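Teaching assistant here, posting this on the class forum so everyone can see the example we discussed in section. The complex has four components, and the goal was to see what a joint structure prediction looks like when all of them are supplied at once.
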Amino acid sequence: MSNTFHFPVQIYYEDTDFSGLVYHANYLKFFERAREHAIGREKLLHLWDAGIGFVVYKIELTYSEGAKFGDILDIRSTFELDGSYRLNFHQEAWLPDGKKAATKGLIQLVCIDGNGRLVPIPTDSLP
Amino acid sequence: MSNTFHFPVQIYYEDTDFSGLVYHANYLKFFERAREHAIGREKLLHLWDAGIGFVVYKIELTYSEGAKFGDILDIRSTFELDGSYRLNFHQEAWLPDGKKAATKGLIQLVCIDGNGRLVPIPTDSLP
Amino acid sequence: MSNTFHFPVQIYYEDTDFSGLVYHANYLKFFERAREHAIGREKLLHLWDAGIGFVVYKIELTYSEGAKFGDILDIRSTFELDGSYRLNFHQEAWLPDGKKAATKGLIQLVCIDGNGRLVPIPTDSLP
Amino acid sequence: MSNTFHFPVQIYYEDTDFSGLVYHANYLKFFERAREHAIGREKLLHLWDAGIGFVVYKIELTYSEGAKFGDILDIRSTFELDGSYRLNFHQEAWLPDGKKAATKGLIQLVCIDGNGRLVPIPTDSLP
């Protein structure tokens, strides 16, 4: 298991819905932004130029508490290889004064080439 | 288990990302639109006026195939009560010529009142 | 000026923000969906296969009234060629009981080829 | 006219569409994030608690060049009062090596109270 990678996300108007809280699907955006920073923009662009992209294969999410406008979430991410073809990210969104994760989940990624075929996770793409 | 509720979703520019396929988080939007139609807009507005709202508690999703611009997905939804406090939606997105679901998942909902407290699923809100 | 093309848009959770109303940027999504239906999905896919795409060049929008969850907007669109290279869409979002457009605007489109060069609007792409 | 406020926006998967570039409506999100940082999260929350919110009234946008995945845009914002009731933000998105703004626009804001009535721009809300 990797070290924990921290990434801050501030909640803007666009992230909320009329319930007053963050729209549930948007945590997947926050988690992806954090993954891109954990892996690194340069590495992702380099892989993409080589015709390889990460694709989300499986998601499990549990929501415990809602975030609201102006909150600054701490997205905490760790990852581990699951065989040669799967990369598991364990990701949590923490409120500033949270005693547990407000939202947590498992995001399982695979890699595909330009023809949509599975390729092994390029381990040199990992921090 | 309820009957299967069908809801069409056409893929627009806004739904795709630069990979050429639908952005993974957007299936949660499609599934929610389908749930709102399955339950019914009038019932949801009526519940909301009574201070009760559905909230997503848990999500499990598996992605098998990507949809692209111009595709018209058939969102297939069934649901069942899981005790008094949980409503499980089984939802799938099918491509027009699909042999299996392109994306499928379980979306578990709970109901909360205006103070954020859990309340039983109002069964008269179900079709 | 073309005939008026009508396209309905129901407001879902995803469209609103914590103010209780539709997030301002989302009207651009509604307007684009309406344009895609006005031009036609088949024609757009055919143009795209030929390496030609519509691109938004200029936008003017005025917001008079907000829409909320459950509202069903009537998007009214007309268009006209502005020279050979510009296509002007005049678009409005009407609330069910509206006395004037809730949001209205001008969306000016151009066409580009695969190298990002301007090409004339393919007039056979217009209804 | 205020000083220029700079705000960086990195382009993620979620921001792009299948054309390979940023989806046109998303610049409005970037501009709003920049405005929220220019005015300040604390001030906006304080105003909201007092029942006052900023609302977008008018938008003019011109798109010159597209941004793509991995780009880091510099959002440049200046603002000026236009009478007592309107606040004009002049906003531009610059690519790293841009010779002119990739996207630029005018976003005109008004303030409303809890009953949706226009109130003067609270000038102590401005930096």
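For the discussion questions: Chain C has two helices and six strands. Chain C touches chain D at residues 19, 24-26, 28-29, 32, 53, 55-63, 66, 105 (CB under 8 Å). Think about how each of these relates to the inputs above.
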